[in-house]
Amino acid sequence: MTKKCAGCGALLQSDDPKQAGYVDYKFYFDAAVCRRCFRIKNYGEYQVIDKNTNDYRKFFDIVKSKKELVLFLCDVLSLDDSINELNEFKGSVILVITKIDLLPKSVKQAKLKKYINENYDLNVKEIIFLSSKKNYNIDLLFKYINEYKKSEKVYLVGNTNAGKSTLINTLIKSFNTNFNSLITTSVSPATTLDFIEVKLNDSITLIDTPGIIDNNSFLYNEKPSTIKLISCRSEIKPRTYQMKPNQSIIIDKYARIDYLSDTKNSFTLYLSNDVKVRRININTNSYLKDLKLNSFNLDDNNDIVINGLCFCKITKKAKVNVYAKENVKVYNRKNLI
Fold first, then answer.
1. 74 and 185, same structural domain?
2. Quick check: 178 pLDDT over 70?
3. Can you give the pTM of this predicted structure?
4. How far apart are CA 172 and CA 184, in angstroms?
5. CA–CA separation, 301 vs 335, rounded Å?
6. Is the residue at 125 inside a domain?
7. Does the chain have fewer CB atoms within 10 Å around its N or its C terminus?
8. Can you give the residue range of the structural domain that contains 123?
């Protein structure tokens, strides 16, 4: 008899504690979740499973060929060119921008939607902003699912930590009173390991997929304690600095932004409220300059994005150097906010 873990989707097995789906043999027949999911849920312990990006991307590619409704999830703080990949799906797609509650309430969703439409050429049925944590727009998403689904199957795809499993759990709580098992969620990446089917009602089966691991994210290969610290859990309080020439912003022990232009400028950081930030003089402090250097000559109204860590809104033209970990993608875009 084979069984799947209701938390992460891995096949339950009793042979190797280091592999996905492990459960002690004496608990095998009664177990609903593997030991890893049990410990994530009850103790906050996270066990890394040895899989690479291609192991997870194969699930993504399978869904591309399906002529079913796809919910393409993107964390609002990780909005970049990767969403263009949704145009490769054969089925209908709804772009779901998650964790909208993390942005300041002053940020208008109409402006964000305009930004997406102006900067990305997307073939989607709808763009919806939601918060699973706050139950915001869940009813509207459910309406869209019923309107656009081709059959009972609805797939959820996106990068790790986009909020797929959390959204499914919210839909379960909102629309299925008979379902007593939830999918495992964690701030650490790659919690879901295989397809997980959840029958929401007689006409909708939600299918969670393993998130695509972004090797260029700050979160990649980081310790769970660091991931927990830098992951935003509440509304961001933007931190604005009036920058003078030859000043630098130090983002804890993770990144450094040097301002090299000869006029004053405004920098506003959007990142976890728990991360410490300080401003220093470039000429008297070389802290973090051993990290990888990324140089930019920015036009007016550009963001600098340190993938997985933060973004910095800059109002005027600027010459900046950004120091970050070797693997982390650092790039600029037009101001999101």
1. yes
2. no
3. 0.80
4. 13
5. 5
6. yes
7. N
8. 51-208
Structural domains in the chain (count): 3
The number of beta carbons lying within 10 Å of the beta carbon of residue 314 is 26
Q: Does 125 share its domain with 203?
A: yes
* Beta strand pairing call for 255-259 and 247-251: antiparallel
User: Per the structure block, which two tokens stand in for 144?
Assistant: 């869209």
Look at residue 163 in the predicted model and tell me its pLDDT: 85
Q: Give the Cβ contact number of residue 287 at 10 Å.
A: 13
Average per-residue pLDDT for the chain: 86
In a domain, 67, yes or no: yes
- The yes-or-no verdict on residue 188 having pLDDT over 50 is no
Structure tokens at 168: 């499914």
pLDDT, tens digit, for every residue of 302-324?
Answer: 999 999 999 999 999 999 999 99
Regarding predicted confidence, which is higher, 185 or 54? 54
- 147 falls within a domain: yes
Q: How far apart are CA 200 and CA 194, in angstroms?
A: 18
Looking at 208, 229, 251, the residue that finishes a domain is 208
Same structural domain, 31 and 80: no
119 burial (CB, 10 Å; 0-12 / 13-18 / 19+) is middle
